Amino acid sequence: MSDAELTAFEASQDFDALLAQSAREMGDGATCKVDMPVVAAHEKAGLSLEALQTMGSDHKVHDVR
């Protein structure tokens, strides 16, 4: 997506309304938890994402928080 396309997309969005809708959905229990295998692996192993990265995996682990 080009900068111009991103700017046009952002201008077309009502972020206040989207945030309010998201909050309503969370309050109504209309959302669900999405589990990612890498997150489950590091939680099960008791390792931080950084420790998991140093274990020589061919996969990149990105902290998206």
Note down, in words, how this protein is organized:
The protein is mostly helical and 65 residues long. Helices cover 57% and strands 0% of the residues. It has 4 helices and no strands. It has helices spanning 3-12, 15-27, 37-45, 49-53. The longest helix has 13 residues, at 15-27. The mean pLDDT is 79.
Query: What is the CA–CA distance across the termini?
Result: 23 Å
Shape: flat
Record field, number of beta strands = 0
Order of helices and strands: HHHH
Radius of gyration over all CA atoms, rounded: 18 Å
- Approximate helicity band: 55-70%
The fraction of residues assigned to DSSP E strands is: under 5%
Note the main attributes of this structure.
65 residues, mainly alpha, 4 helices, flat
Quick gist of this model?
The protein has 65 residues and is mostly helical.
Helix-strand layout with pairing:
Blueprint: H1 3-12, H2 15-27, H3 37-45, H4 49-53
